[in-house]
Amino acid sequence: MLGLNKKDTSLMIVVIILTMFAPFILNPFPVDSAMAQFNAGYPDLMQRFVIFGIFAIGFNILFGLTGYLSFGHAAFLGIGSYSVVWMYKLLDYNVIYGLPLAVLTAGIFAVAIGYVSLRRSGIYFSILTLAFAQMSFNLAYSVLTPITNGETGLQVYNNDPQVLLGANEATSPHLFGIVMNNSFKLDVGAWQFTFNNGYYFCALVMLLVFYLSIRIFRSPFGLMLRAVKSNQNRLSYTGLNPRPYTLAAFVISGMYAGLAGGLMASMDPLAGAERMQWTASGEVVLMTILGGTGTLIGPVLGAGFIKYFENIFSKINDTILHQWFSFLPDGLEDAVVFIIHPFIGKGWHLTLGILFMLVVIFLPGGLVEGGQRIGKWIKSRGKSEDSDSGATTEPAE
Amino acid sequence: MGILEVKDVGKRFGGLQALGDVNLSVKENSVHAIIGPNGAGKSTLLNCLVGKLIPDTGSVMFDGQSVLGRTPYEINQMGISRVFQTPEIFSDLTVLENMMIPCFAKRDGAFRMHAIENMMSEAEIVDKAEHMLEEMNMADKAGMHSASMSRGDKRRLEIAMCLAQEPRLLLLDEPTAGMARADTNNTIDLLKQISDERDITIAIIEHDMHVVFSLANRITVLAQGTPLVEDDPENIRGNPKVREAYLGETA
Ligand SMILES: Nc1ncnc2c1ncn2[C@@H]1O[C@H](COP(=O)(O)OP(=O)(O)O)[C@@H](O)[C@H]1O
Ligand SMILES: [Mg+2]
């Protein structure tokens, strides 16, 4: 279907179903139940799932295929956000102007940054991208204040031109009148499901760019990128110039990041320099590795995993902990809460660090490898049960 | 005039004169062996031919054009393919994918971006890659992960990848180094077959005399960075200077 092989088509269909039904899938607990805090089906978080999914899918095209580890991709995220907010300020709140511009500007910056950084490989490449991203951050934070509005962040003011703004037009981001903020709420018994315009818009964009990434992975270009990762020496002596291939991958992944940044500003009409900070660049590295570097679905899983647990762990506080462990004797309860305390709330990064270490050590292939292992285990269990009963005599696969 | 003309090539590494005034002429469609003791400068010379090193002095002409100052991929696109001392293949890819890359390089040049076309639906490339594997008796390994092959098979794949580009000159740096006798003989047979059946010139660096005398129809002996003598195999065998510099040492 659409130029995909059977396996990729089924993957695509699964992803379509999961994203389209996410408001149900992510809200398994009734609103008033104690478990409701583990629900993830509200607009803000669902938007983050897919936006960071896009960011990680793009990052994986560079890192997963070519092996070049960029530590500066957050710069493109910020550039994308600024582009979109500027279009709000100059034209109007329709995101249709800003998003293509976000992709384009990020692409232009990626050409420049990639051209210089890709003169080196390995750790030197990573350091160069990190340096560029920090430069971009500092430019945005202080030097280029007229363009970025410095530490306040860029936002729309009443005296902005907004030349295309109609009399009855929405004054928050929208797509031809479909307002991103608006949601439709569905109550079913004790459950409540929220269908948010912004989420569905981002989800459709993600499905499109996910499809594109599958095509890239399976294309001759994708093969060349994997060859770059595998053996650059052989590639050069096979008459191929690795540089333009890696630059193309860098620019494509930069454009994905620009798109993700643009979508962030499409959900919330703000752009700030902190979006370009190195921690944000590092986060997408973690997402990709955690999910499974070089796999199609891994980065999306990694993004969802990190954003979900960030949300859960940073919401938990001592009061909630005391509730959970109230069944314990008082002294013990306090001790348990004391031990867990550093890992929750603002200490969520500590938990992330530990989770990341565990995955890298025990599942080098990330969550995707975990899934494959479980799949294999179930299969082999199924098989041994079959042979135990001896009833089936199917030929071996 | 040979297809490859090396004139007065010199190369220093710090205080070490690795190559000094090397002259070499490789005739079209010949198998030319370059022999010499360890450290004689054979690999250095080869690296000067493929763009990995730039000689300090002299000139290297391939088919009437200078190769000096060109990058390895440009020199390869001129028609020179190279086999490494330890097989260099794309070990993360399958055997078929390995074969497809030189086929793309031959058809599309040093860079072309097919980002949306499906790799496996490029029938022309897939056919050529499969055909090449068949010719090298490796068709059964097409789907295999190339890292898991034996050393001899990796060498065979590397040679196949070079041939898929239809090069005019094939350079080999000690292709049988570290191989068991059986693998060595297979490689000799393979190279013989290639030079008989194809319109190709082979220049081979070799340490193993058995390989050299089985294959070469012209031999250059290199010692301490300079060519001692260039002659036909029969004359090299009996040459006292060569015996002293090289054969005597290994005997
Ligand atoms: N990159 C290099 N830097 C310094 N010295 C080198 C380098 N490459 C080779 N040499 C030296 O040059 C001499 C010739 O080396 P090489 O061409 O590898 O010999 P061969 O292949 O004939 O065994 C040796 O003494 C070696 O140590
Ligand atoms: Mg050598």
Automatic annotation (TrEMBL), chain A:
Keywords per UniProt: Cell membrane, Membrane, Transmembrane, Transmembrane helix
Ranges annotated as spanning the membrane: 12-29, 49-69, 97-116, 198-217, 244-264, 284-306, 350-371
Subcellular location: Cell membrane
InterPro entries according to UniProt: ABC_transp_permease, LivM-like
Gene Ontology molecular function: branched-chain amino acid transmembrane transporter activity
One protein family per Pfam: BPD_transp_2
Highest taxon of the lineage: Bacteria
Membrane topology of this protein: Multi-pass membrane protein
Gene Ontology CC, one term: plasma membrane
PANTHER family: ABC TRANSPORTER ATP-BINDING PROTEIN (PTHR30482:SF17), HIGH-AFFINITY BRANCHED-CHAIN AMINO ACID TRANSPORT SYSTEM PERMEASE (PTHR30482)
Protein's name in the database: Leucine/isoleucine/valine transporter permease subunit
UniProtKB/TrEMBL annotation, chain B:
Keyword line: ATP-binding, Hydrolase, Nucleotide-binding, Transport
One Pfam family of this chain: ABC_tran
Molecular function GO labels: ATP binding; ATP hydrolysis activity
Coiled-coil segments on the chain, per record: none
Presence of the UniProt keyword Metal-binding in the record: no
Signal peptide boundaries: none
EC number of the protein: 3.6.3.-
GO cellular component, one term: plasma membrane
Domain ABC transporter: 4-249
InterPro entries on file: AAA+_ATPase, ABC_AA/LPS_Transport, ABC_transporter-like_ATP-bd, BCA_ABC_TP_C, P-loop_NTPase
Protein name, per record: Lipopolysaccharide export system ATP-binding protein LptB
Protein species of origin: Shimia thalassica
Gene designation per UniProt: lptB_6
